[in-house]
Give the backbone structure.
Amino acid sequence: MPYSNNNNNSSMKQLILKISAVALLGIVTGCGPSGTGGQLVGKPNTLNNYRPPAPLGMVWVPSGVLKAGASDEDIRGRNDALIRTVQMSGFFMDAHEISNQEYRQFTEWVRDSIAHAALGDYIDNPDGTQRLDMRKRINWKDQDLQDQLSNLFVAADQSGWGRKEFDNSKLVYHYETYEYDEAVLNGTQPKTSYITKRDIAAYPDTTVWMRMFQYSYNEPIAQQYNWFPAFNNYPVVGVNWHQANAFCDWRTQLWRSEREKNKQYFEGRFRLPSEMEWEWAARGGRNESPFPWGGPYVLNKKGCYLANFKPQRGNYAADGGLYTVPVDKYWPNDYGLFNMSGNVSEWTASPYNGNSFHFVSEINPEVHRKGNENDPLWMTRKTLRGGSWRDVQFYLQVSTRDYEYADTAKAYIGFRTVIQQIALSLTNRR
């Protein structure tokens, strides 16, 4: 067949059209809806401008450098609290100790949840599971309801008071935690093997006022402290370390469920502070001062005490409080935190050991819960900080370490919680 110039031109036109189509496709994909212009700009999401709200009653403790440990002059304390310089990420912390009325919200939620479970009050979830319908109100004064839930009450002839009463020993909070650190460090087992299930008695031990002080008449405060309205704003006591952790889990679930219901993002969890976090917050930016307000004195210019403790060799009332005082009394430190010294000692998440400071990280230090397996008391002793109404001045120092056994409840031990939103802590929230 003879050579045809027309066929050649037609083939060239088809080739040009194909090349143009490919080029046009490249332009469309490169400069389409994403508008990247062919550049690497990252894939945005709906959380780009997200800033979580400050939980009610909490204040922001900024990132910074903590010079932890006892001062050079504190020879006794220096043996227990080695001087360390560590880097701290910011976090939210309760402005004051958890009060009776705040803890009561927890115990009453547990009470109502047990009742709802017994009554079969459930809601179907979209995934086919069920949850308790906590929206229904429980009228605990209703006699018919009390008859249906008779196993939760102590009969009048057995209560000792001549009236039927709710059995607070039935208030058991069940929760499960995923031991993330164990899964990461020893992650050879299925994930379910790192889930720990706990059942914790939620109600405070109100007998601590009498068992601790056997030769004093403390029946009135033992009977009234936890529930009487006059003590609403006083720090909860009689709560052991396990109960404080159960409260933290409940508070996390309470806030998470509300935010997820409203399609809002949730970050972090409420927990006890590590002892380094506690010390960083207590110092309030006064890195080398012995007390939250500075120091070295526990009196201001007017001769008024700056904390609730045991001054003047046992003159408890000299500072304005014979026992505990409301959680918002005395001046806060420069971060806005009340009673970081005095009133009640506070549980921390950290196990106690005399040489703990020798093996902690220099960034966000935390004593690992299995950091000293040769010490049989490692997991049973938990670090206390801050001193209390029954302690002398030495224990008010922000560097002073003390401990108590995790299953022990006292009339001078309370707690407060923290929550960390790591994106904010690294950028130092403004």
Summary: The radius of gyration is 29 Å. The mean pLDDT is 85. Residues 163 and 187 are 54 Å apart (CA to CA). Residues 58-99+203-427 form a domain with the paralog of FGE (formylglycine-generating enzyme) fold (CATH 3.90.1580.10).
